[in-house]
Write a structure and sequence with these properties.
384 residues, 6-stranded parallel β-sheet, 49% helix, 3-stranded mixed β-sheet, 9 strands, alpha/beta
């Protein structure tokens, strides 16, 4: 008997090699005349912005560039981007880059049609007016921001400086996700590792989530299998188009499933770490420890993860399910991911404050095993 569930996807997805060539046609079809392009310095240096602008010129679409995006986009950067968009009278927005650029574009889109600062929309379902048109063009395979219904924002104002909040609502997702695997050729190896492990984390956490549905299970397992097959090949050679296609597809699936089923304890633990390590690296280190913690709560699902990651499993008990953890650890080891927090600059004295902050920020009620404050501390101590 199937459970009751809801599933919706607002974003239209165009996927395939050479899709960037369609951007002018897509924008013209939407009636766009002047576009704000939101990006970062790395994308500019890689020459990807220039390629995009050349295509806009061929369709006589004028543009303004906002290249001030930083990792972990801040409320100030989003608010300033909206000021620029309004001043330049841009009627559409392109997010070109990784999750930070796309999330910034999504935030600007919200403010284009709703008053105030992005901080006014922190929390769930506060975005009730359809945002301005946003086209998401990812240049990494990781966050799934191009289809997700959330924005992660660093609050850099007043007493809340450096704390994070999320803006979640079905309307937050872009109108169009344009996915071209050719844009992944310039991804630095370190970024490919971190974002690839972030993708795997999204898929696994959504699959075992209490919020999972038959549809998200199907999509998550598909993504997990593609990560297991193609992640190391993509890291080894980002110009490998087949590997890039598969990882871009897996990342998109990750964005879809976490929008529906949400994430779990891994993201709870890593949320306070953003000032010291990248989000993807933090997730890569913490994920195996959280998987071990969650094993007893949903053994059959972990056995399915193990199978999707290529493990030969025959049993149905806890020891068989643990093969999923070992498979993730093997992938991380092959990619050279550090195994412990102490390997990336954390100190034992950091554990208590990190645990307290994680508990204050958000305890995911959808994690398959109930998570108490002491559990957070114990997991961080194990990961240290």
């Amino acid at each position: 008997m199937l459970p009751s569930f809801e599933f919706g996807l607002r974003t239209r997805i165009t996927f395939g090699s050479g899709m960037l060539n369609r951007i002018g046609e897509e924008l013209s079809g939407q009636g766009a005349q002047r576009v704000l392009v939101v990006t970062d310095a790395g994308v500019v240096a890689a020459g990807l912005l220039e390629r995009l602008l050349d295509m806009l010129k061929t369709q006589d679409i004028s543009f303004c560039v906002y290249d001030q995006v930083r990792p972990n986009p801040s409320s100030t950067i989003i608010d300033a981007g909206e000021e620029l968009r309004a001043g330049e009278e841009c009627d559409a927005i392109i997010g070109l880059g990784g999750g930070s650029s796309i999330d910034t574009a999504k935030g600007i889109g919200i403010l284009a049609t709703s008053a105030g600062s992005i901080g006014d929309y922190a929390g769930a379902n506060k975005v009730r007016v359809p945002p301005g048109p946003v086209v998401a063009i990812p240049t990494t395979a990781g966050t799934g921001a191009e289809v997700s219904t959330a924005i992660a924002v660093t609050d850099d104002s007043g007493e809340n400086a450096h704390s994070k909040f999320a803006v979640r609502a079905p309307l937050v997702s872009p109108q169009l996700a344009l996915l071209d695997p050719n844009l992944l050729k310039t991804v630095p190896q370190r970024v490919a590792i971190d974002t690839g492990m972030d993708t795997l984390c999204h898929l696994i956490e959504a699959f075992v989530s209490k919020g999972a549905t038959p549809i998200t299970d199907l999509l998550a397992l598909e993504g997990i299998q593609r990560c297991g097959t193609w992640l190391t090949a993509f890291v080894a050679d980002r110009s490998n188009l087949i590997a890039a296609q598969n990882m871009l597809y897996a990342a998109m699936l990750g964005g879809i499933v976490i929008s529906q089923a949400r994430t779990g304890a891994t993201h709870t633990l890593t949320r306070p770490m953003g000032d010291q390590v990248s989000h993807g690296l933090a997730n890569a280190i913490i994920l195996p420890f959280v998987m071990e913690f969650n094993l007893m709560a949903t053994v059959p699902k972990f056995i399915r993860i193990a199978k999707a990651l290529g493990r030969s499993v025959n049993g149905t008990d806890l020891s068989t399910a643990r093969e999923a953890v070992e498979a993730v650890r093997q992938i991380a080891s092959e990619l050279g991911v550090p195994q412990h927090l102490r390997d990336v600059g954390f100190h034992e004295a950091d554990i208590g404050p990190l645990a307290s902050k994680a508990y204050e920020l958000e305890i995911s009620g959808l994690n398959p095993r109930q998570l108490e404050e002491q559990d957070i501390r114990s997991l961080l101590e194990a990961a240290y």
